Each structure stands twice: as C-alpha cells, then as structure tokens.
Amino acid sequence: MADLTDLVSLVLTLRPMPRAGDLAEAPMWWGRASQALALEAIGLADGGLAAALHEGDGPRPFTTSSLLGRFPARGLDPAGVYTLRMTALRRDVAGALAAAAAANGPLGPGAEVELDRRAFCVESVARSPAVHPWAAATSYTDLAASYLVTAAPPDRQVTLQFTSPTAFKSQERHVPLPLPDLVFGSLIERWNAFAPLAFPVEVKRYAAECLAISRFDLTSRPAPGKEGGVRVGGVGQITYTTLNYDRYWMSVIHTLAAFALFSGVGIQTAAGMGQCRRVDDEGRRTNDDGRRTKDERRLTTDN
C-alpha cells in the first residue's frame, strides 16, 4: 500500500467459530464490538495511537460497521460468512489498519478475532473495489482531483446509500433524516479535520439553500446505544439535485459524497452508524418493486 495513502476502507470476511457455551442468540448490533476490535488491532501496532483514538474529542479518524450477514433465528449461522468494515481517515490510522490486516497481522487472513465474546476466523480482506464495492484506498489529493481537476462538469445530482442507521445531532436534538445541510455539514467537518487542503465551510450553506431531495427510499431503523438507549436513524438511498447549478460547488459536493465511503455520515460512525457511500448512475435502483441493488445486499444485515 502506498505510503501516501490517507484513506482506507477494508472489508473483512469472517466465518464463525462456535465454541462450547456460546449463547444461541446473537446480538443484532455489533457496532461497539467492532469498534473495540479495531482499537485492539491498532493498539498492537501503536498503543499510544489506540489510546488517543479511544479518548479523543471531535471527529474520529476511523469508522467501523456492525457485523453484516444473515442471523437465522437471531443466531449466527455456523456455515455462513459475515463481513465487517473498517475505515481510516488519517495516514497514521490507515497505516496501522493496513498493517493489522496484512499477512500474519491480528486482522489478516487466517487470524482469529473475537466480537462480543464470539470467535471468528478472518477468511479474507478486501482492499480495492475490484474485490468488493465497499473497499478502497486513496489519498485526499487523488480523491479531490477526481472531481475538481477534470474537463467534464459534475452532474446536477448525487445519490447516497446509507446501509446502517444514520442520524445527526442538530440544536441538541437527534435528527434521523439525511437532510442536505446535515449530510454535507457532517462531511465537510470531517474533511476539514483531516484533509491537507480544507474546503470552504460555506458548502454547508450551499447544500442547505441549493440542494433539494429529488428522490428517496428510506426506512427508519434503531441502533442500540449506551446504557440500554436506542438511537433511530435512516437506512436506504436518497438523491439530491441542485436548484442553482454551480460547477465549483457541485464539484465539492461530489468530492464529499465520494469521501463518505471512508468518513461515514452523522453520529457514532466509529461504532457502526452512518455507513454510507456515493452511488453512481449504474448503481442506482432502476426498478420500482422495492428490491435492492446487488451491491446493497452485499452490505446489509437483512439480506
């Protein structure tokens, strides 16, 4: 992996390793367990970095997903496979995750990992979209150049796919709807926190005043919180269309939408919420019968 890689999205394929005494009923939410696994793996490479990630304030430079797959009768399928995604938004975190997922690493192929006191074997690790649509590795410079340094003007529309509950904190309230200013406000906050070149914060104002929701297919879904609490967020797809086309601002919007694959959107992204990615025209739902795209089925828990 290149030394200049800032952004990494790893998709781990896991197989359960049933042990005597395992509970028959598995949890339906594994966000905090996956966060603990990521911090443990990073800590083996750099204990100080793991401690800083656990205790730090502000946007976290990593995300994790819940465990994704089928849970027959609310249990693990011993013959099934599951996926778990981890991302990094900063070079030191990207390097630590990449090292952990390498051969003989604690997250590498053949390693045994534990989630919520249940054992799994890592069968494979995807690092590129050629292997899995949610895996990738790039730099902030290359990601921005894809949309800002190009002869083709950006599209008037951008579609985002949310595959775990996505919610926002706004004016001391939790909002479960991906409104344009909340989505791109969340993305610009994370981008400017970690990217070497900041974008104008006015992009949030452009999103609020110029982006309209032109299509959506969303469902509310709960995510367990601390001390028995529950947070409700939106899952599904949503398309935003500009009402006042501006090439520069839409280039920034598309860059931030692509960044969502790594950064997540909204609250609790380090613990499973806000898993999101930009969807191009080929990946949008074209049918009207409610069926999901193949790629969405590959990263949802109810497939």
Tally of discrete structural domains = 2
Helix content: 25-40%
Tell me what the CATH architecture of the largest domain is. Answer: 2-Layer Sandwich
Percent of residues in beta strands? 25-35%
CATH topology of the largest domain: Alpha-Beta Plaits
Succession of helices and strands: EHHEEHEEEHEEEHHEEHEH
N-C termini distance: 32 Å
Task: Tell me the number of strands.
Answer: 12
Rg, Å, rounded: 19 Å
Task: Describe it.
The chain is an alpha+beta fold and 303 residues long. The protein has two domains: 120 residues, 2-Layer Sandwich (Alpha-Beta Plaits), CATH 3.30.70; 156 residues, Alpha-Beta Plaits. The chain has eight helices and twelve strands. The strands form three sheets. Strands 1, 2, 3, 4, 5 and 6 form a six-stranded antiparallel sheet that branches. A four-stranded antiparallel sheet has the order 10-11-7-12. The two termini are 32 Å apart. About 6% of the residues have low confidence.
Describe the protein's topology.
Layout: E1 7-16, H1 31-45, H2 47-55, E2 62-64, E3 82-88, H3 91-100, E4 112-115, E5 118-126, E6 136-138, H4 140-148, E7 157-166, E8 168-170, E9 173-175, H5 180-194, H6 203-210, E10 211-224, E11 230-242, H7 247-263, E12 276-279, H8 294-297
Antiparallel strand pairs: 1-3, 1-5, 1-6, 2-3, 4-5, 7-11, 7-12, 8-9, 10-11
Helix pairs in contact: 1-2, 1-3, 4-7, 5-6, 5-7
